[in-house]
Amino acid sequence: MNYDIKDINLASKGKTRIEWADGDMPVLQQVRKRFEKEKPLQGKKMSACLHVTAETANLCRTLKAGGADMVLCASNPLSTQDDVAASLVKDYGIPVFAITGENHETYYKHIRSAIEHNPVVTMDDGADLVSNIHSDYPEIAENIIGSMEETTTGVIRLKAMANDGALQFPVIAVNDATTKNLFDNRYGTGQSTVDGIIRATDILLAGKNVVVAGYGWCGKGFSMRCRGMGSNVIVTEVDPIRALEAAMDGFRVMPMAEAAKIGDLFCTLTGDIHVIRPEHMQVMKNGAIVANSGHFNVEIDLDGLKEIAVDGPVEVRNFVDQYTLPSGNKIKILADGRLINLAAAEGHPASVMDMSFATQALATEWAVKNAGKLEVKVHNVPKDIEDWVSNLKLKSMNIQIDELTEEQKEYLSSWEMGT
Q1: Strand 330-334 and strand 320-324: pairing?
Q2: Domain ranges in the chain?
């Protein structure tokens, strides 16, 4: 087997971690059991570019159980759990190309390795795999049935490709499924981002001014968790509707130029570039902490910071680089501006990834079943997949809900009855 990981001898620890996560992923377990019997992905070559975590490992196990001939590479240089990568190779026979802290050259070498597997199905978290296929491997793009996209940033990129007429195969926006973004983005990112920041800094959030850039589902979740820990949350936005929502949720809303002067902790969750720029950093308090929980490390203008800083970066803790500004004030950048929840912590809890990855697996099955029938565009996840996942998750939590009576069904489908 061809693979590139840090150390195969870490496999035992990785397997324990994978099995621990699996115990909190009952919906994905059900998908795996059915896949083992039915083999809906039999013989399909598949390449996945995802965060190499214990939860991802259980998704890969499920896809392989369904018959997929798959390989996995990292979607971020800092998010790989090396012991998990080792276990996937040794214990589950899945080739992995990922090493924690890999440099830019190695990162893209690993992506090329995944592409050269000649997949007919791909799975992405940020669209790096798909964009590289389109740029450098057009002959492979011709054979791809479909691709699943896991994150907001990736969906934005892929919709831009579709709008430009550049997209060459169908994509399923798994990120836009409510069983993903409503829970994974809000509760998963919310909790794991707080976790990563605290692990990196040991900050006490109570009483701090926390500036949240972006009030999408990730920003909402992070804001909620910080408020729950006693922070004074300030939201910055460019979308008037989301800004209104944040205000009516009880948060202060203001431009970043104003928030920069009073924030103790800043976190970007937008999916856009240069949300925090040198003009903002120059007015920050001494000791301000700046983190990112968006997919790419472009939300904080680090190049601009390095140009204005008189000293730094100086590593003062693991994942904490300190820069000194001309004013003498020092600001601290976490994890080199990369995903703080995966760089300094372990990413989302398995329980919430259970729904996201069950939806991923079922969307893959749907794409394969509809090979050649799907229009070349970005598709939503079918509602029956969403309903199945959410109902099974409720069952696993021992929660029951009501069902519509026949009278109620008739009322909802009619128009004659008024007041």
Answers
A1: antiparallel
A2: 8-180+348-396, 187-343
Range 194-200 average pLDDT? 98
**CA 36/CA 15 separation, integer angstroms:** 20
183 contacts 355 by C-beta, under 8 angstroms: yes
pLDDT at 25: 97
| CA atoms 153, 154, 157, 158: torsion sign | negative
* SS3 (DSSP) at 323: strand
Separation of alpha carbons 174 and 184, rounded Å: 11
Looking at residue 85, what is its pLDDT?
A: 98
Q: Is 43 exposed, middle or buried (0-12, 13-18, 19+ CB in 10 A)?
A: exposed
- The pair of structure tokens assigned to 173 is 């926006």
Determine contact, residues 358/314, Cβ cutoff 8 Å. Answer: no
* 341 vs 296: which has the higher pLDDT: 341
pLDDT in tens, 227-254: 999 999 999 999 999 999 999 999 999 9
Q: What is the rounded distance in angstroms from the CA atom of residue 321 to the CA atom of residue 334?
A: 6
Pick one of 3.60.10.10, 3.40.50.720, 3.30.300.130, 3.30.1330.200 as the CATH number of 187-343. Answer: 3.40.50.720
231 token code pair? 């922070």
CA distance 363 to 69: 17
Residue 290 structure tokens = 């700046």
311-328 pLDDT, tens digit each = 999 999 999 999 999 999
